[in-house]
Amino acid sequence: MKKKKVITKDMTIGEVLSIDENLAEIFLGFGMHCVACPVSQMETIEEASAVHGVDTEFLLKKLNENVK
After folding, report:
1. Taking the mean position of all CA atoms in its chain, how far away is CA 65?
2. Which of 3, 13, 18, 27 has its CA 20 to 30 A from that of 43?
């Protein structure tokens, strides 16, 4: 049985999307259109959440619920 990867606040958006590209829909649902931005390779989830006014813990919950 393959262990599910846990998404953490210190991961970059690019790292998250490399685990499961379908998680882009979660980011987009939060108004975080940075999934296609070059900054997504450097900006952590925590940093992006702060810039976009998104609750980091709630975003992490949603990402981890939907990771494949």
Report:
1. 12
2. 3
Name the amino acid, one letter, at 44: T
- State the amino acid at position 40 in one-letter form: S
For 40-61, what is each residue's pLDDT tens digit?
Answer: 889 999 999 999 999 999 999 9
Q: Is residue 4 part of a domain?
A: no
* 27: containing domain: 13-66
The residue among 44, 51, 48 whose CA lies nearest residue 8 is: 44
Would 46 be classed as within a structural domain? yes
What total of structural domains would you count in the chain? 1
